[in-house]
Every structure is written in structure tokens, then in C-alpha cells.
Amino acid sequence: MSNNIQQGWIAELELNFSASRSKTFLSKRKHIGPLTIQRPFYPEEGLCHLYLLHPPGGVVGGDQLSIGVKTDSDSSALITNPGATKIYRSNGHKRSTINQNFTVSNNSSLEWLPMETIIFPGARSKFSTSFSLSGNARVAAWEIHCLGRPVINESFSSGKLEFSFELWRDESPILLDKLIIDKSELENAVGLRGYPVFGTFIISNSSNEVLDLVRTKLFESDDCVYGATQIEDIIIIRCLSRRTHLVQDFFREVWQRIRPLVFDREASIPRIWAT
Q1: What is the DSSP letter of 88?
Q2: Count of CB atoms within 10 A of residue 227's CB?
């Protein structure tokens, strides 16, 4: 126990989804430390819904979290979580690391729809997210990060953050994204432009119809700036905002509209979002 207190938690979670007849089931579950899941359930017939449970006390400097998810051929899974992930200030130069790796096999689908990550002033963290798609694998996935707590006028006044986001298909890169944030980057015209909340939403297997639908939902205001582009059949939506809920609401609305076109399913809102 004392070693964990000095060096931080090491938490690992490995999940493998497989298909049996018309139902997806969790064929492998391995976890180490305070990172686990609730029991899978099926509000949409054969599609597996899963809630991911992060450490209840949040993440601090020295903590190491690793999440690995694989969907086998013909399986379908939707993963979300019941609340925001919190990254607290680091003690000294210790940094926390969060690694997330998703492998989506041919003829399978994954919807990765987590709540936001709140990053407190003084945090030193490295975030790495990678999606590896095979064949006609289908993915809808977003990440939303909030720097400080804008609702109480708390800004990210100190600390350093590193972000890496990669998307591959059949071992070829489609999106390789890196971002380093410190206080000076927040006001940079080519950085976050003073917005404390930023999000990325990727949608695979998209058509011009899906892109047109997404663009009809884009708007700009004093509180939000949105943009969307398409690389091959991948739509990438970016958002800068002053409030987390504005990004959440926008991403969820887009997801509900594109789901029938990309996943051949009507949107079924995870019940946990209403709590």
C-alpha cells in the first residue's frame, strides 16, 4: 500500500467483445487496480452496453491508467461512463498517464462515448488514445476535455498536458494528432484561443450525406466554435467552447442523427446520461 501511495496507482483494464449468433458478449475481462466495469446489459437486443468505472478519487500525479478494448468480427459494443473523469494537480514533477487503445475488427462496431475529463490547475498528465480499424469496422468516438472549472471561473493557471490521438485503418495512418498545452498555449491563436473546453468526435464509414448532416448542425457563437472535415471516409469534428455541456449536447445530437446512417440503428440514449 505504501508503495502505491508514493508512486501512484497502476490500473489496467482489458476488454474483448465477441459475437455468438446474434448477441455480443464480453469474452475477456482483465483488470488490475481501481479500474473496472459494471455488468454488461442489452437495451438494444444483441448490442452490448458497458459502463466503465474510473477510480472514484480521481487521478493524481504518478497514477498510470491503461485501457485496452477489442471488438471481434461481427460484435457490437457501446461504452460510456457514469461521470466525469477528474485529473487533479500533480505533486512536484510527477505526471499521470492515461493510455487507451481500441482495436476494431472487420465487420464489428464500437461506440466510445465517455463523459468529459476535468483537468484541474497544476495537473501534469499525458493522454494517449489510439484506434486501429480493420476492413469495414465502424466507429463513433469522442473525447471532451475541460481545463479547470469554468463554471466557477477557475482557469488552468499552471501545469502541462500532452495529448496524442491516432486513427489507423489496415495499418495505414489516417489521423495522427498531437497537442501540448501549458498556460501560454491557452491564449495562442493557433491553439485553444482562450477556450477552456475542447473536444474531438470521429465517425467512420461516413458518406457525403453524413457530412452534410453534420455540417447543418455546425454553428459559431461567443461560447462555441465548431468545424468538421473528412479524410477518406472518416469525419472529424472539432469543438472549442466555454462550457462543457455545450460540447456534450452537440456531440450527442450529432450521434443521434448519424447513428441510423452509419450503424443501421436508431439512437438509444444510455440511461446513465439522464442521471
Answers
A1: P
A2: 12
| Whole-structure pTM value | 0.92
Report the alpha-carbon distance of residue 40 to residue 77 in Å, rounded.
Answer: 10
Residue 15 φ/ψ, nearest 5 degrees: -130, 135
In three-state secondary structure terms, 61 is coil
Q: Contact, 214 vs 254, CB < 8 A?
A: yes
DSSP letter for 154, please.
Answer: B
C-alpha cell at 147: 481545463
Alpha carbons 28 and 95: distance in angstroms, whole number = 30
10 grid coordinates: 497502476
- Between CA 225 and CA 215 the distance in angstroms is 13
Specify the pLDDT at position 1: 37
Predicted local confidence at residue 224, as pLDDT? 86
Q: Which residues of the chain have pLDDT under 50?
A: 1-6
Contacts of 8 (CB under 8 A, 6+ apart): 60, 61, 62, 63, 64, 94, 96
pLDDT, tens only, 215-250: 888 776 778 888 899 999 999 999 999 999 999 999
* pLDDT for position 265: 93
What gap in Å lies between CA 75 and CA 242, rounded to an integer?
37
Q: 94 by DSSP, 3-state: which?
A: coil
Q: Which three cell numbers stand for residue 112?
A: 466510445
Rounded distance, CA 254 to CA 217, Å?
Answer: 7
Separation CA 261–CA 269 (nearest Å) = 16
